[in-house]
Amino acid sequence: MSQSAEGPKSLLRRLLRRPDDLPQSSEPAAAPESEPIKPPAVSASPVRPSPPEENIVPAEPILPNVRSTQSAPTTHSVGNLEERLRAELALEKLRQKTARVAAEFASGKINRAQFVALYAHYNEKRIIIERLLERNPDTQAWQSVASDGQTTFLRQHYASRMLSYAIYFHDAMQPLVAQGQPQLPEDMTFKILTAIRLVRRTQRTLSAQRKQVDESHWAVFIPAEFTTAIAMFLLEPSTRQVLLVQDLHRDFEHANHKLLVRNIRAADQYVFPHRALFENDF
């Protein structure tokens, strides 16, 4: 009963209590929301209205014109091309000359020493020009290398020349005639004539033979029906020179056939075509 009777009184006291006497809340009171500050309105110009907004399209960059990579040939480049063509033509001429030297040797026109000297001369020129062009395709130094010269000297310097000749009967070791110097040494002459005599017992026809005597001399032996001719040459004779000596000795036996059949040994009664070899440089 006491609790129910005090209930209204305590309620009344709470209602009559001052705000200061009210219990304080532990949470702070929320601040009132403030309105956002608006910027002042800008008044439009009374004289000129603002232009309407347009969509501005960025301009495309102007690209430079692409120049052709194949420019017209200049005078300098054309000159270099012509110079290189002349160099290639010079190389081709040297190749033809080396081929001609090989053909001359094969046909017997030049001897071995001439072939070696001439071929080495042309081949050396070719190698030098090719190396110059490899180092500098625009060089003109090849012109002095390709110039003609010295080949005539080389041909003459290494040309073989007949120095002496002698004619022997097959059954004699003394010559019917001997002209020029040096003659083949006697010991070598004896061996050669003995070998020819032995071969002729089974083989009547013998071809001409060449033999090197020393470093600078060669001997050519031409057996025939009645006699053998021995010719001495400075340097190795060419095939044509050997054939010429062979033809001359054949003509000797043909012109003096009657004397040879009669076994005449007097040299003053014979004619000797071989003497033409001393009068003509071949």
Could you characterize what this model shows?
The protein is an alpha+beta fold. The protein has 2 domains: 78-157; 161-279, 2-Layer Sandwich (Beta-Lactamase), CATH 3.30.450.30. It is 44% helix and 12% strand. It contains 9 helices and 5 strands; from the N terminus they run H-H-H-H-H-E-E-H-E-E-E-H-H-H. It has a 5-stranded antiparallel β-sheet, with helices on both faces. A hairpin with a 5-residue loop joins strand 1 and strand 2. Helix 2 (75-106) runs antiparallel to helix 3 and helix 3 (112-135) runs antiparallel to helix 5. The longest helix is centred in the N-terminal third of the chain and has 32 residues, at 75-106. The radius of gyration is 61 Å and the shape is elongated. The chain starts with a helix and ends with a helix. The relative contact order is 0.08. Mean pLDDT is 78; it is low at 1-5.
Please outline the major beta sheet. 5 strands, antiparallel
What is CATH's topology name of the largest domain? Beta-Lactamase
Work out the strand percent. Answer: 5-15%
Report mean pLDDT, rounded to a whole number: 78
Q: What's the CATH class of the largest domain, please?
A: Alpha Beta
Q: Report low-confidence residues grouped into runs of 5 or more.
A: 1-5
Radius of gyration: 61 Å
Element string (H = helix, E = strand)? HHHHHEEHEEEHHH
- Please give the CATH architecture of the largest domain: 2-Layer Sandwich
Helix content: 40-55%
Report the CATH superfamily of the largest domain.
Dynein light chain 2a, cytoplasmic
